[in-house]
Design goal:
The complex is a heterodimer of chains A (about 450) and B (about 475). Chain A has 10 helices and 21 strands. Chain A is α+β, with helices and mostly antiparallel strands and about 450 residues long. The chains are: A alpha+beta (about 450), B alpha+beta (about 475).
Amino acid sequence: MITNNNFPKDNNVLFDRGKFGLRITEKFDKVKCSEIYIQKTESFAIGLEKNSIKDCNKSESCGFSVRVFDKRGSLGFAYANDISSKIIEKTINNAVKMMKAGPPNDEFKDLPFPKKSNSKITGIYDKNIKDLDFETPFDLIKDMIKISSEDSQVVTQSGDFSSLYTYYYVFNSNGIEISSEETAASLTSSIVVKNNRKNETGNGFHWQIERKYKDLDAIEVVNKTLQMAKMNLNRIKIETMNVPLVLTPKGVISLILNPIASAINAETFQYNRSFLVGKLNQKIGSDLLNIEDNGLINGAIGSSEFDAEGVPCQNKKIFSNGAFLTLIHNSFTAGKDNVESTGNAQRNSFSSTPYIGSTNLFFNTGDCKMQELFEDIKIGILLDYTGDSPNIATGDFSGLILNGNIIRNDEIQESLNETMIGINLLDLFNRIEKVSNKLEVYGSKNAPYVKISNVQISGSK
Amino acid sequence: METPNPLESNLISKLTKLATQKRIEYWDIRVAFSSGTLLEFTNGKNKEVSYSNIKGIGIRAFVNGGWGFSVKQNISDSSIIEGLNEAIKLAHYAERYSKFKFKIREYDLIRDKYQTKVKTPLNDVNIEQKINLTMKIEKEARDFDPRIINTNSLYTDSIINSLFINSFGSSIEQSISILRIFSIVHAKENGNLQRNHESKGGVGGYELTKKADKIGIMSAQKAVQLLSAKPVKGGKFTVIMDPKLTGVFIHEAFGHACEADLVIAKESILEEKIGEKVASEKVSIIDDPTPNDMALFGSYKFDDEGIAVKPVQLVENGVLKTYLHDLESASRMNEPPNGHGRASSYSSKPQARMGVTYLKESDWKLNEMIEDTKYGMFCENWKYGYTNPATGNFQFKTRNCYKIENGEKTELMRDVGLSGLILEILNRVSAIGNKVEFSDGICGKGGQRIRNCNGGPYLRVEDVVMGGLQ
């Protein structure tokens, strides 16, 4: 058998190996600047199927990637999940080979230079997750099983508990040398319920992801899943109509926050692939459209002191009273636009180059109480979940309502089958009429309930 | 590139002894080394030119309804033993709390070696040649029309060398070579921005690039064509689907609900429907990943649980015959495994997944099908699709469609979503074309993305709900 280096228990090994890699890149004359990203992760998960524990999984991974640029701006990138000296050297040679073979890119300026962070972020690491005893999270899963087994309408529940520990370093030839130690733990639940009288099934899902183990609340996760699944029963087909639409926080995330996160991405913008191109510094939505991207909230899942290129994270107002104010950048797009990076470079793992992503994205609350949202709606639609997403290039959205209900005389009533919704996002932004005064948190996305004055609905009746 | 050596017999006997001592009823180990290239160019510039090298081991242990799974990245005897010990410990934890007790049924062991048929090995082609091809595709798309504002071309290849062993004594060594090329084009005119996406690829060597020879031009042509398309008005229509759309329709509207792990989890609308009529009697659906001369992207010889593939007849003349099984679902449903336990890599657990799923051809010619349609929509290609197997609601987005008026294709439309209910829609099939065509795809389930193919002939379905922007 082939034998290799061992998985490093000690994080200092990552520092040494990363520095070793950076020194090698600096030996190549043709390399203008270089970066080493080195990361280790440890994860644990318990899987739930048919409302019973099915499997337990443990995984470890340690790897690194190297980016090298020459004077022409050509990028060579290579990665491996082995941090032995031999493989580090071989991988860097591959990256340099790629760099030499690639075409020039005059849009590349430089890798970032060191900049001090003004904020110290706390609460993104929990020792209880890093040193998690495998038996501990079984209690959370047992709670989830108990609640759903006590409900006579539940047919089945699937879901999981998972935890992740990450430690990484970013080194670059301009002097950046940062590290971060982070944890996350999550619970997911998906429940199918049955209406025995009508022999009809409905489903719902909910999830929670936290930096700290103690913040997980299995009872709330299952109760919210059950509520969504039961609201999915008594489905009817409706006629085509033009009516008011109320988006739940999940609905706001899929119809507003996720598309905005893509559309304000400077890369999408620079390539003219965003429906917001040409709209910067213009008022394009209702006064109630207020969105910010804040990477500096202690304990939040999207927070960190530095981004994945070692640039300090920030808090940015994206939309204020309907006016579109800023884009989110990594160092490449910032260089191209001659602006500072906004600290939005992210990586899924060592195997990806830094892409642009939102940190903690907020649709800010309004002043509307929950019951006021539904007032004066003679007939309308509540949208909780659609599997579709808008076309970012055009802003057009047409999607199937997977979880949604009809609203009659201020009340949420039957669920919907074969009902589709169509609107352009710019129209949707302008038709925001009410925003609730409370928001819900789904990982790094934070959203209230939002009422849209009128939307086209295609029914099948 | 490194290749996994067959495990030495004294290591296998150590693993067997360890598993027996700890009351483990089944275990398997997947060792993999993969290397690959990714090239991406946008607007004539280098976005990513990368090379990867990944290796690791996935180890599963099973006892009485509980599974343990451990992933290690160091490939050594001690790491494998440590991983099996972990998987055993985790399997016992799972078993302790598991409500459903069952056994994994033993099947005949397989000892085999399999290598993708390759004419030009990927490693025999230098990086400059791959870069030139990818840049040529990007340039051809960019130069096609002044209305094109953004072009992106992507080349990806990988070689995965793997070894599978399990407690039944199976041992399978494989070397799989895959390649895929994409062209994504955005075109704009008077504030109207449209996107088109084309991909070609398969299982094989560099010779597969011939399939993508004109992909940039084709992608650009369609993006420009979409500029003149109008938004569709929602409603109910007779729809003719092209083979690409038929393929994704079968995959989304039916294939997922056939995955036996979802059936067991009570999350499929096809539960307890074996032997029942679920579609028009004109409809037959097959999943056959067996590698053949077409080098289809979804093809494979052995699944990730060491089971050899064969054609699986899911629906015959409208009647549901069987499900797609992984080892666990086959054991629990007392059926033979049929080669559909697939994992995205060594670091993921196998699930019941599709391979090459298609609707069988019949006898309609396309022109006859259009002429026979008084009023309807002729839909081409797709952007994405999904289904909710528990309620039967499905939805997919077509790239474009033409109105059919009095048996003729007329106005071009865009941004069309088709939706329906699984058990209703396949009963409304009114005509099936005479030739099956396949297209490549990547399918996501439970966080795992795997390669597959969908296919079918031209297909006409009555009363399909279409959603649009008006």
